[in-house]
User: What shape does this take?
Amino acid sequence: MTASNEPSAHPSGNASSEGPSVPIHLRPARDGDVPALVPLLLRLKRLNEEFDPLLKVREDADEQARHLLHANLADPKAVVLAAEGVGADKDKVVGVVRAIVRERPFYVPEFEGVILDIYLLPLYRRRGVGEYLLREVSAALKAKGAGVVTAEFPSQNEIASRFYQKRGFRPITAIHARSL
Amino acid sequence: MAESSAAPVAAGGEGRRRSRAARSAAETSEEETAALGRRAVELSAFYQGKIETVPKVPVRSLRDFALWYTPGVAEVSRAIQADPDLSFDLTGRWNTVAIVTDGSRVLGLGDIGPRAALPVMEGKALLFKFLGGVDALPIPLQVSSPAQFIASVEAMAPAFGGINLEDIASPKCFGILEELQKRLPIPVWHDDQLGTAAATVAGLLNALELTRRSMREVRTVLLGAGAANLVTARLLLALGHDPHRLSLVDQKGILHAERDDVDELMVRNPWKYRAALRTNGGGRTGDLSAALEGADVLLAASTPRPDTIRAAQVRSMAPGPIVFALANPLPEIWPEAAKAAGAAVVATGRSDFPNQVNNSLIFPAVFRGILDARARTIPDEVVLAAARELARGAERKGLTAQHLLPTMEEPEVFPEIAAAVGDAAVRLGIARKRLTHDEFLDRARAMMGRSTRLVRALARARLTPPMPRGTARPGKESK
Assistant: This one.
């Protein structure tokens, strides 16, 4: 899988916001959410396209996203969360988090929780929402045995980079690419 | 829906008529522009520049240089070293402005570079001096990044009482302005954002008054989401316009929080992104037609093509709508077409139609005011004070649908704007020099009047040679 994920919940320092003040409700995703989650994943991938031509989105990306989400939902090592609006936006899926626990055969901790995708519709960003999503997915990954949490996103995405670095993440592996 | 089936027919018929009229008006305007262009080249070759520095102190003999220069001047330097703010009192800094550009978006010419931008900046400097009594220096920069631009302006700031940014491409102009406003202890202005927006807001305030509408209740569509309209939107919201009744529209349609390109904007144009979130389309999605249906106000600063806005779209607005078609040189819709479609008030960016929305009504007076107040910065409140005063200027002479704003032939409004700006700077606590309203007014009148007298005196004394007779289409240019 290409490194192509970032938190669009780009935070503006309201690090103290706790769950209840956040204008979303987060829950594990279900198969029935997939049609609502696919366009959100595609928005994220199209954003990634902005950062590098090697992240150009495939024609069949929506179909791929659908398959992938169904596979993740059936996979005990994967975490897929759906963010719903509250109040008038209740029942509207406004965000998605997708992560997976991978084994690290050479390193300790042995299991790594990889945040593959975080996407929130723009109106639900800030106010500490991204922070909240990160905390929740980290907890879910930890519960599945992960001893370290990592995030994959395009190298040129400075917004994502700042978001994670502010929260104690540092770059540990780089993926460099060139066309063949 | 019943209306929409009839609309295309009407629009088609009228479209043909209008495009004939548009063509002839466009052709006339193109010919005139071409003649003016030839004459401008001729005169530029004759005068070789539009401004020069002129001594403002007596020089009775070379001995006086012991005062104006060394050794006497050293004491002046020591005084400023001890109190840097004295540079505003003991040198010309207080009245000197840098006109800085990278030449990346000059007039309608695009990215023509700093050398080609120089004649435009010289013209601006002339306007600054003639209308505002401000000494302005044209400074086109050869730079390769916004960071380099910012560093260059920061480095030159000690010589200036204010900075006027000019003709910088959007969206980088937003970042450059924001950063320089943060860093510099003097006001930084970008005329294509603030000047145009202030003049637009002034026109709108009067148009609302004329049509008995209130800022808090109107539904407004801004066509074009570039430098001017993004700031206009910000100013309207500051004046109490409901963000959910304000739609920004660009080539991709209504700008809203879930538009496909909104994440791209977050990365490439955060100012437009923030506007998308704040207004969220004014509750609408779709194209310009969808935005305009039932809207009270249309402020267009977009494509200079008179079929950008169709008559049917104006007809779909609320009764007696306000239409500003500000693109230059050609408005987005011809004023007569907008009127025929029901517009109660129409404004354009051109001087040959009534109601010209023109940033030259704003910037000389704004700088006069902020320089006289020795202001540290220029927040939106000051911009709005200028807009309100410009609007009042038209009211004093009698507000009509043909006289929405003062024209350049009503110079008495300029000192009033300068004084309003000075007052606002004092009120906001950003003035180094706290004058009274009357003091600001007297000073502005004196400074502006002196410029006019200076230009006349130089001509009378033949120090400014008279314009040579034209060889390029003689007589045409004198219109």
